[in-house]
Specification:
This protein is α/β, with parallel strands linked by helices and 343 residues long. The protein has two domains: 49-270, 3-Layer(aba) Sandwich (Rossmann fold); 273-337, CBS-domain (Roll), CATH 3.10.580. The chain contains 15 helices and 13 strands. It has helices at 20-28, 33-40, 69-76, 99-108, 125-129, 131-136, 140-153, 169-182, 199-216, 227-233, 251-256, 261-267, 278-281, 300-310, 330-337; strands at 7-16, 43-53, 58-62, 84-89, 92-93, 110-114, 187-191, 219-224, 236-241, 244-249, 293-295, 314-318, 324-329. The chain has a six-stranded mixed beta sheet, with helices on both faces. The protein has a four-stranded antiparallel beta sheet with strand order 2-1-4-5, with helices on both faces. A hairpin with a 2-residue loop joins β4 (84-89) and β5 (92-93). α14 (300-310) runs antiparallel to α15.
């Protein structure tokens, strides 16, 4: 497999309006989104975004409606042109690509999965799935062989001849995912891809994505307004508000150390047992002679179940070779799983 590059977003600004470039300095000088709109009738979409999106991992960008998350993802394949800043893929700046370079980048390096599925209603599942390869000029026999593999992988084998209106919402989104994967693009851009689905189907699609990612190691940028989804999927999470990054890090870092009251409000209802790892809570200064062991890297919820099943109140946390790294107790586990009254 070719080495996958990460995405570096540096000092990215987007200001909507006829004189956006003239407004960048005003924003840098501290002008707010509301003031820019009121005084100059320009809309601040993105404000000095700096995110290092890891190669082969899932980067979640999260925020409420109007936070700028969909605007941001559309800068990665330049569906929206930035007012200032860089979007680097490897050594290439997407913002400086010529139209031909950009067309090739979109066709071969990126694929998108949309909230509203964006399937062509007059095309079958197979014909929707091969659409990107058709545009690339791939011979139809090869295109259909590649598409059939991914249709099967997302659980739609036997539905190749069905039309979108014959499928449920969850099945339609599986077609969208198969279409994106058939292109074999390095970067997968997923804009609220599961937001229109029922909760159980949504969880199912998250599982499909995580299972596929374990094998494929794509660079995935996933947009959501749902914190539970962000925590389940994201290797890294960036939280936006009013076009600016408020906090970024792993899910565990954000839950344990929210940057401000806005983030605290997001995380206070989170099931911390499914986010915090045993390594964070264990006492590294101690080890036990023999007894119960818990593998490093698991979540507190799983450790709590181990304690409950065994009836033992403390355990060694061990690495892959069985060497002890520290001691975890039932009390420390329960304390860490309970949301503190204040953040």
């Amino acid at each position: 497999m070719a080495e996958v590059s990460g995405i570096e977003i540096k000092s990215l600004y987007k200001i909507f309006g006829p004189n956006g470039k003239d407004m960048v300095q005003k924003v840098k000088d501290g002008m707010s989104k509301a003031e820019l709109n009121e005084k100059f009738n320009h809309v601040l979409g993105l404000n000095d975004i700096n995110i290092s999106m890891p190669a082969g991992k899932i980067q979640v960008v999260m925020g409420l409606s109007g936070s700028g998350k969909s605007t941001l993802i559309r800068h990665i394949n330049r569906l929206i042109d930035p007012t200032a800043g860089e979007v680097l893929y490897g050594s290439e700046d997407v913002c400086k690509m010529s139209q031909n370079e950009l067309r090739a980048f979109r066709r071969h390096k990126t694929a998108m999965v949309f909230q509203k599925f964006a399937l062509l209603p007059h095309r079958t599942v197979m014909k929707n799935t091969v659409y990107g390869l058709e545009i690339q000029g791939v011979p139809m026999k090869e295109a259909e062989e590649r598409a059939a593999r991914w249709i099967a992988r997302v659980g739609l084998e036997g539905f190749e001849s069905h039309y979108p209106n014959q499928l449920s919402g969850g099945m339609q989104q599986r077609v969208g995912l198969a279409r994106a994967l058939t292109n074999d693009a390095d970067i997968l851009l997923m804009d609220e891809a599961f937001s229109a689905l029922d909760p159980l189907i949504r969880m199912d699609m998250q599982t499909v994505l995580l299972d596929l990612q374990e094998e494929l190691h794509k660079t995935i940028v996933f947009i959501t307004h749902d914190l539970d989804e962000a925590l389940r999927l994201g290797d890294k999470i960036a939280i936006l508000r009013d076009g600016a990054v408020i906090q970024q890090g792993t899910g565990q870092e954000i839950v344990l150390r929210p940057a401000d009251s806005y983030i605290s409000d997001f995380v206070k209802e989170v099931n911390r047992g499914r986010v915090i790892k045993v390594d964070t809570v264990m006492d590294r200064s101690k080890t036990l002679e023999g007894g119960l062991t818990i593998p490093s890297g698991i979540m507190l919820e799983e450790a709590a179940k181990t304690f409950a099943d065994s009836g033992i109140s403390e355990a060694n946390v061990v690495n892959g070779t069985g060497a002890p790294l520290g001691v975890l107790t039932v009390q420390d586990t329960i304390t860490a799983m309970v949301t503190p009254a204040t953040h």
